[in-house]
C-alpha cells in the first residue's frame, strides 16, 4: 500500500490563493471562512492562526494582494505611469472577484508601501504634484476595470442553483477594451503634463 502523502502545511499564501479562487469563481459574497476551510481541507478555526482578525484580516489581505503593484523606475514619468497603470489593470483583471475590496479598502501593508514607492518614482522622474497625480491614475485604473467587469457580465447576480461565475479572460482581454483603456490613459497623462 503506497504511503499516504502528508498534508500541505497551511500558510497565509495558501489561504489567500484559496480565497482568491473562491472569490473569482463563485463571487465574494460566497467567500465564507467555512467554505475557505473546506477548500483548504482544514477546520475554519485553523485559518485564524494565520489571520487572527479572521474575515476582516482576510479581506484586507485580498485587497492588498490585488493592489500591491511594483514596476521598475523609469526616467520618464509618463512611461513609468503607463507601466504602473497597465500592471495595476492586469492584476485587478486577474482577480475580478475582489475588485470591490480594492475599491473600498484603504491601502495597507504592502499595498501602501507600493503606492508610496510609485509616488516617489514618479516624483523623481519629474511628475509635478505626484501624490495628486497618482490618486487620479488609481481612480482611472480602478474605474476602467470596474466598467470592464460590468460590461463583461461577469458579476451578474446568480441564484442558488446557478453555475459558478466565470471571470473574464486574464490574458490580455478584449482588444477594444485594451484600446479604450489606452486612449483614456493617454488623455489623463496629457492632462497631468499640462498642469
UniProtKB/TrEMBL annotation:
Keyword Transcription: yes
Residue numbers spanned by region Disordered: 155-180
Keywords in alphabetical order: DNA-binding, Repressor, Transcription, Transcription regulation
Presence of the UniProt keyword DNA-binding in the record: yes
Annotated DNA-binding residue span(s): 32-51
Record-annotated HTH tetR-type domain positions: 9-69
GO biological process: negative regulation of DNA-templated transcription; response to antibiotic
InterPro entries cross-referenced by the UniProt entry: Homeodomain-like_sf, HTH-type_TetR-like_transc_reg, HTH_TetR, Repressor_TetR_C, Tet_transcr_reg_TetR, Tet_transcr_reg_TetR-rel_C_sf
GO molecular function terms attached to this record: DNA-binding transcription factor activity; transcription cis-regulatory region binding
Protein name: AcrR family transcriptional regulator
Organism of provenance: Streptosporangium sandarakinum
The organism's taxonomic lineage, starting at the top: Bacteria, Bacillati, Actinomycetota, Actinomycetes, Streptosporangiales
Amino acid at each position: 500500500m503506497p504511503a499516504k502523502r502528508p498534508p500541505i502545511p497551511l500558510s497565509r499564501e495558501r489561504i489567500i490563493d484559496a480565497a482568491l479562487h473562491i472569490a473569482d469563481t463563485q463571487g465574494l459574497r460566497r467567500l465564507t471562512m467555512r467554505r475557505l476551510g473546506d477548500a483548504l481541507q482544514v477546520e475554519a478555526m485553523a485559518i485564524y492562526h494565520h489571520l487572527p482578525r479572521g474575515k476582516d484580516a482576510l479581506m484586507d489581505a485580498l485587497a492588498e494582494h490585488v493592489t500591491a503593484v511594483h514596476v521598475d523606475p523609469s526616467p520618464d514619468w509618463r512611461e513609468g505611469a503607463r507601466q504602473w497603470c497597465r500592471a495595476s489593470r492586469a492584476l485587478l483583471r486577474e482577480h475580478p472577484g475582489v475588485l470591490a475590496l480594492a475599491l473600498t479598502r484603504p491601502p495597507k501593508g504592502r499595498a501602501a508601501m507600493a503606492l508610496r514607492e510609485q509616488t516617489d518614482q514618479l516624483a523623481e522622474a519629474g511628475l509635478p504634484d505626484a501624490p495628486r497625480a497618482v490618486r487620479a491614475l488609481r481612480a482611472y485604473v480602478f474605474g476602467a476595470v470596474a466598467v470592464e467587469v460590468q460590461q463583461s457580465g461577469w458579476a451578474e447576480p446568480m441564484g442558488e442553483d446557478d453555475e459558478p461565475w466565470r471571470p473574464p479572460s486574464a490574458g490580455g482581454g478584449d482588444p477594444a477594451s485594451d484600446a479604450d483603456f489606452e486612449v483614456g490613459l493617454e488623455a489623463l497623462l496629457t492632462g497631468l503634463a499640462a498642469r
